[in-house]
Amino acid sequence: MTETRRRTKSFRLGYVIAVLLALTFACHSAIAQGLKTVLKTQVPLPRIAGVAGAANGKLYFIGGLTANGNIGTVHEFDPIRNSWSTKKPLPTPRASAAAVNLDGRIYVLGGRDNNSVLSTVERYDPTSDTWSKLAPMLTPRWNFMAATVDGKIYAFGGIAGVGNARSVLDVVEVYDQLKDKWSALSPMQLGNSSAGIAVIGTKIFIIGGRLKAGANSSGSATSKVYVYDTGTGKWGTGPSMNQERTGLEACTLEGRIYAIGGGSRGRITATIEMLDPNANKWALIESLRTPRTNHSCAVLKSKIYVVGGFSVSDGSKIFSSSLTSLEELSPAAK
User: Does the model's pTM come out above 0.85?
Assistant: First the structure.
């Protein structure tokens, strides 16, 4: 064998080994960054468009819509006992609201009751199992997004009105709990509803949803991501998801954002995408056990809990497909 052939063979062998090592590392990284999904005890009452919050080591599933109308039912999940119990009901039964956790209490904002669109804000204290009524938002709305940063609550977009009178909002408001007061901020770049929302530092990520497409329109599903910096009050953009979707949920866990479920083009998805801000790119990872939309999620003890929603795109079968399953998502072992 000539020296040239030996070098060529050695180069090829080295290249193959390098590729195998790279693939091995890539597969290991994908597994390490993925989520392990576990089914937990089912929620006692199936419904869609409820909200979830976590406080004092427990998960709370609040309100929602059943075939008989909006409800104020509150169920508490204990992850240690893997069991549900019933708590004091939400004073204003509603669906398609937003919920945030702040200082160990859960705030339920806006939504729809059986007759109208709401601006109502009610706060639940799990320690005393009591509800308090607070100053209403400036704008009644449903299917909007809310998050907390530095002790303040921010509410974005949503839908005003119902039926043919509904429209997608670009309204942004902030709540000061010390003053019990809402104030208007500069509007969103485009109206949006039914998006996911997540926080990293002072930045709020509005993920997917339905972007406003004109007057009296519910908008169209998008994969775009808009980022609001609460420190500067300015908007920017983030990397788009791999697929457009609306009716999804988003949660932040260990510095990464997870976009979970939702629907697009008449199909419900079980897909989970993960955004590592350092990578600046969404990665498709493990899927939910059950495709779902109009569900809710919350982070509790380094795990994401996904609950509620429905699993079919046929409007006549939404309630028959409403879900009682509770999925626990945790980072896969490295």
Answer: yes
